[in-house]
Write a structure and sequence with these properties.
Elements: H1 6-10, E1 26-27, H2 39-50, H3 62-72, E2 79-82, H4 85-96, E3 102-107, H5 112-120, E4 123-128, E5 146-152, H6 164-173, E6 178-181, H7 193-198, E7 202-207, E8 220-223, H8 226-233, H9 243-254, H10 256-279, E9 291-294, H11 302-310, E10 313-314, E11 316-318, E12 326-330, H12 334-350
Parallel strand pairs: 1-10, 3-4, 3-5, 5-6, 6-7
Antiparallel strand pairs: 2-8, 7-8, 9-12, 11-12
């Protein structure tokens, strides 16, 4: 065609996980929450609909920022709202990284990071995790071309975390800001909000897709020091969050009792899933997210994924260059999880 920028024609593009359009599936492939969101969310959206949609929404989500600030222990001007945390990642890439400059990311991790760099015409510098999913010291190495670093914590697909002490050291040594992507932090034992207060280079992104069971709503936010938020606000779309998502997000973050109860259920099932997979001979690192990563040396894992799909259970099969293939399984309800695990055991028995 020749109409598009060379960077766009060259990239493969981000491919989301399977979203089946027909038939009844148990979906354990995209780390969605298996439980319905707080009932307060639907009620808030209904009330907002009654007010009409003929006017533009609040461009900065003031009400959400006020309540989120109370929950997180910061001030409202430390928060930037986004159309999902992917919107936040896009804003950051556009705001910090120019054509030919570098964006650093670990690998294996969220593949959208690299896509965003490619769209921007930037170079993505990938630093491989160690075999045990620890982060090498080289991630904090300074470089003149480096303008931004992305670090998911907990990481996907492993569910593992980088210690806060190491994150402090990395931020101190980097010449640029670092975004700690905390999409799964509500399922973890700790988070990095306090690090944002210590260092203006440290920013944290969150999403309501996972721990708030609102993947279909599309809402995320950034926590950063006010001088960073002020500049990034110039980059975002004028009205990047619609009135219904703002109403639902406010109701969701206001119901912290629901979040705590949901976390307890997910974490309990995660522990049971981890133990069962290990009993079946899989290697499973301790996860701090709402999924587990499982490998099994000597056993091909793609046939397991295919067997589950034939039986209407979706998980994520992943293979990265230079590392062992693996399967990532989202935490479902206890019933969904048992169906998945029983099928895996059945496959292994039939193919032993």
């Amino acid at each position: 065609m020749g109409y598009f920028r060379p960077e766009i024609e060259a990239i493969a593009g981000y491919k989301p996980g399977e979203q089946p359009q027909g038939g009844k599936f148990i979906k354990l492939n995209t780390n969605e929450n298996p439980y319905p969101a707080s009932g307060k969310v639907a009620e808030a959206i209904r009330q907002r609909l009654d007010q009409g949609l003929e006017k533009y929404p609040d461009p900065v989500g003031t009400a959400f920022r006020i309540r989120a600030a109370e929950v997180l222990g910061v001030e409202p001007d430390w928060i930037l709202c986004g159309n999902g945390s992917d919107d936040i990642l896009t804003i950051l890439t556009r705001g910090f990284v120019g054509d030919g400059e570098w964006l650093r990311l670990p690998t294996p991790s969220y593949v959208l990071y690299k896509t965003l760099a490619e769209i921007q015409g930037a170079d993505s510098e990938e630093i491989p995790f160690n075999e045990d999913w620890t982060l090498p010291e080289s991630f904090g190495t300074a470089s003149n071309h480096l303008k931004l670093a992305f670090l998911p914590n907990p990481n996907s697909p492993s569910g593992t975390v980088v210690p806060k002490s190491q994150l402090r050291e990395i931020a101190d040594s980097l010449p640029c800001p670092i975004l700690i992507d905390e999409a799964y932090a509500d399922f973890a034992d700790d988070n990095c909000i306090d690090l944002v207060k210590e260092n203006e280079k440290i920013m944290v992104s969150r999403t309501l897709s996972k721990s708030y069971a609102l993947a279909g709503l599309r809402f995320g936010f950034l926590v950063a020091q006010p001088q960073m938020i002020e500049q990034l606000t110039k980059v975002k779309d004028s009205y990047n969050c619609d009135a219904l998502s703002l109403a639902g997000a406010l109701a969701a973050i206001d119901d912290q009792k629901w979040v705590a109860e949901n976390k307890a259920k997910v974490v309990a099932t995660r522990g049971r899933m981890t133990a069962r997979l290990r009993e079946l001979g899989f290697t499973v690192p301790d996860s701090q997210a709402n999924f587990v990563w499982a490998t099994k040396p000597g056993v091909k894992l793609k046939p397991i994924y295919e067997f589950l799909k034939q039986n209407h259970v979706l998980i994520r099969y992943m293979q990265y260059p230079g590392i062992t293939e693996g399967i990532r399984i989202s935490v479902g309800t206890d019933g969904q999880t048992d169906v998945c695990l029983d099928l895996i055991e059945q496959y292994l028995q039939q193919n032993s």
